[in-house]
Structures are given as C-alpha cells and as structure tokens.
C-alpha cells in the first residue's frame, strides 16, 4: 500500500512538471503572439464565425470547422474579448496536448521517457509556430491525442471511458475536418480488443454521446446554410471559396 502511494506521488510530480513547463511556454507564446497580432487570414474567419455564434456580428465562412469558434464564442459571451483571448484559448489546447501526450506515452514508457517525449512534442518547431496563433492545427492535434488516450484507457481499464473518447474524437473532427482520419487508430484500438463483445454497449453509448455533441453544430449549419453537414456547406453555391479547413 505504501509503495503504491509512493508511486502515485512520484507520478504526480512528473505530471506537475509537465503542466508547469507547458503553461510557462504557453504564456511566453501568448505574450509574443499578442505583440505580433493576428497575421494569418484564416484566423480572422474563425473569429468572425465566433462572433456569429455569440450573436455579436456576421460570419463570413460558416462552413469552416466550428468547434474552436464555438469555444471563442463562449469566451466572448463571458466578456473575454480581444486578440489575446484567441491566443490564450489556442494556447490552452496546446497545454492540454502536452499533458495528453505525456499520459499517452506513459501507457508504454517510463515516467522519464514520457516526460522527454512530451517536452519534445511541445518544442517541435511546427507545433510552436502555431500553438498560440489561433489556428486550428494544434487544438485538433491536442484533441486527437486525448481521444486516442481515452480509447486506450477504455480498452485497458474501464470501457466507460468510451463515453469521453468518442465525444472528444468528434470535437477533434469539428476542430479540423481532416482529424476524421483519427477513426483509423480508434478502429484498430477497438476492433483488436479481445473483450470487444462485452464492451459493445459502452462503445454504443460513447458513439451516441459523440453524435449528441454534433447535433448543435449540425443545427448551426442548417440554420446558416440549409445543410446539416459541413462538407455540403463548403460547396454550397453561396459559400465563398475560402481557405482549406
């Protein structure tokens, strides 16, 4: 019992190190980005869509992935406005992604190896370049990491974690449509499970919760362009040709 408590305490110290490191880097990135401002055209479209969702203005490209704009819309409604809100929201996903990467690696590697992997992920130039800009790439990656981690936990420990895995996977898809390819690793995790039959009810409920998460966004698409699916909205005659989602 004492040894188990010691191991848990040791693991929490590593998680704390990852969290402190990621928050520190995120704050620096937000401050740097705030001094630069928004410089990528797509981000203006995401902000405009967020203002549309918050009933604060029109949206210009409502077929684009809606999840991150919905998060921004919630922050706008709470009174957090300005460019720094966009940067901070993106940076929060960056922090979540680093922590998720550590937990995912820890399923296979030691704490020290997982820490090294998480720090490596956090410091990749491609990740750092977009972490606090307000673009969709890092939030989608972070949500995808968490979806895979939760699915593995559901397979190995408790199948009720599928209740979280599928909604998070849906959120990743709604953050960047190409994240739908994440269905491939999720399918491998699920279909190769020796206890698949016993877990089918929980898998079904998890899928149902994922669909439930999509419903308000499908309603939003229907209200704005008469189609419940974003892929149809993209090619709607009234939809302008804009950046690739």
UniProtKB/TrEMBL annotation:
Main location: membrane
Alphabetical GO biological process terms: lipid biosynthetic process
Keyword Glycosyltransferase among UniProt keywords: yes
UniProt keyword Transit peptide present: no
Ranges annotated as spanning the membrane: 14-41, 62-80, 86-105, 138-154, 161-191, 203-222
Gene Ontology CC entries for this record: plasma membrane
Keywords: Cell membrane, Glycosyltransferase, Membrane, Transferase, Transmembrane, Transmembrane helix
Cell compartment(s), UniProt: Cell membrane
GO molecular function terms attached to this record: pentosyltransferase activity
Source taxon at top rank: Archaea
UniProt membrane topology term: Multi-pass membrane protein
Domain Glycosyltransferase RgtA/B/C/D-like: 65-201
Full protein name: Glycosyltransferase RgtA/B/C/D-like domain-containing protein
Originating species: Methanothermobacter thermautotrophicus (strain ATCC 29096 / DSM 1053 / JCM 10044 / NBRC 100330 / Delta H) (Methanobacterium thermoautotrophicum)
